[in-house]
Amino acid sequence: MSEIELYSAVLCPFAYRARLTLAEKQVPFKLIEIDLQNKPTNFEEISPYGLVPLLKHGKFRIWESAIINEYLEESFPTPPLLPKDLVQRAQARIWINFADVRLFAATHKLLLTLEPLQQAEGVEELSKYLQFVEQEGLQKLSAEEPYWLGAEISLVDLTYYPWFEQVAVLEHFRGFQFPSGLNRLKKWYETVANRESVRAIAKPKEFYLKHYARLQSSASVIS
Ligand SMILES: N[C@@H](CCC(=O)N[C@@H](CS)C(=O)NCC(=O)O)C(=O)O
Hints:
By secondary structure, the chain is an alpha+beta fold. 54% of the residues lie in helices and 8% in strands. The protein folds into two domains: 72 residues, Glutaredoxin; 131 residues, Glutathione S-transferase Yfyf (Class Pi), Chain A, domain 2.
């Protein structure tokens, strides 16, 4: 039996982060797919918040995707997915935090509303965050290099990538338009999308649109 188990859901961008980290580190693990519309009755005994991802390592349980990824980084240090330099490490954490408290939080809010004015505000907020990512993040940290922090892939790339893979859902169901001119961001996306770890599990736009068809007439979150 595999020592590591990951409770996951195919549509969950947070679980996707952990899957990518495990793949990049080539850590073997057992994937346990949870149907979030129909969770096992005892799921909260396994995952205290009732959420995926949940990582089991032997008898220990870790939850919250950003913390799971840091745990994996510390438990399986090769290849490193955080810079050694302390300032760069802090920068990596700033961007991982930005993903959670700004980009993913605004996305959550947008998916939870059917009200046109609130949708327009949500769309505006997301555009602002993407512009900030382009100018403050990628342009300054890695203008000429492939990944977010420079030459090497890091947890920052793996944290953001799943959001971009699902952006068609926001475009189709919530009227989001990817801001024009974010050329560094587009190039970054193509680079990460080409990683073997991503190609092994990436899903096409049609997959997400089909599975989120309910968003047409209901307010929901990515799950
Ligand atoms: N902050 C959490 C978010 C996890 C999360 O929201 N997971 C969603 C799926 S994407 C979930 O399990 N939803 C089930 C529910 O709300 O009942 C993380 O980063 O791990």
